[in-house]
Amino acid sequence: MDDPRYTLIQISDPHIEDPGTRQRYGTDTAEALELALRRLEESTVRPDAVLFTGDLTEDGTPAQYRRFRSVVEPVAARLAVPFAYAMGNHDDRAAMRGVLLGDGSGSTDPVFQVVRVHGLRIVVLDSSVPGRAYGELSPDQLDRLRAELAEPAPDGTVVVLHHPPLPAVLPVAAAIPLRDRAGLGAVLAGSDARIVLAGHTHMTSAGALAGVPVWTPGALASTADALPPAGVGSRLVAAPTVARIDLFADSVIATAVPLDRGLIADFDGEATARTVARLRAELPAEPVGG
């Protein structure tokens, strides 16, 4: 069995609120974030990085970022891998810089980050537009991305942003798109970009831009129902997910991981190993050159 060269965990749209507030999403969103990180630590997966694709907070206040940090920081210290944060339309650049990124400049310029994990490059873009729900990438960001991608990374590049550069299937999502996704596609075309990771729509979705896979994992806070019943304009349900992204030498796999689920059965390691051995024994040999 091929082993992935890199495994990334993607968490999107936690929308952390103040404790004891109205709970717009029907639950304390900090508890959903705690569950996601607990599931990660309890698993056998040891990621190379953890990526947050925007809307870290509901209102972008320093207090909400501090609450977010209080949940995330101990886990980041224990895992000892990079944690990267993309700006969403609910986020605030100055507050996120000050509380999460250790930059007290108060700058409201777009947040552009490059994280390197061995031979893998992760570029985090800022598609937020202050005070608006739609997204766009400034010419300066596209120029910086183009310059960064001019020199390929040994194991390729993962591009991270909040607004997915894809069409939308629901009217609400269609009203808050990433504007000029073709501009991003022109920069990515022919580059070493292996996948684009986004959030924003609160739906697990996959597509492609300029031949590069695009993936959104759903959200922690709520999930948009892509098949709402007749007479219902839109519907949000509680079905929190995160994602694991596995990058192999010649392929990439994005997998949605449901968090709020009923357990059907657990199988111990020995039983699982026997099943895997039996199934692998039934596989025909790979053709020469296959």
UniProtKB/TrEMBL annotation:
Report the InterPro entries cross-referenced here.
Answer: Calcineurin-like_PHP (IPR004843), CNP_phosphodiesterase-III (IPR050884), Metallo-depent_PP-like (IPR029052)
Matches recorded under SUPFAM superfamilies: Metallo-dependent phosphatases
Specify the domain of life of the species encoding this protein.
Bacteria
* Keywords attached to this entry: Hydrolase, Iron, Metal-binding
Q: Which residues form the Calcineurin-like phosphoesterase domain?
A: 7-202
Q: Name one Pfam family in it.
A: Metallophos
Return the similarity comment.
Belongs to the cyclic nucleotide phosphodiesterase class-III family.
Protein name, as recorded: Metallophosphoesterase
Q: Which lineage do the record's taxonomy fields give for this organism?
A: Bacteria, Bacillati, Actinomycetota, Actinomycetes, Pseudonocardiales
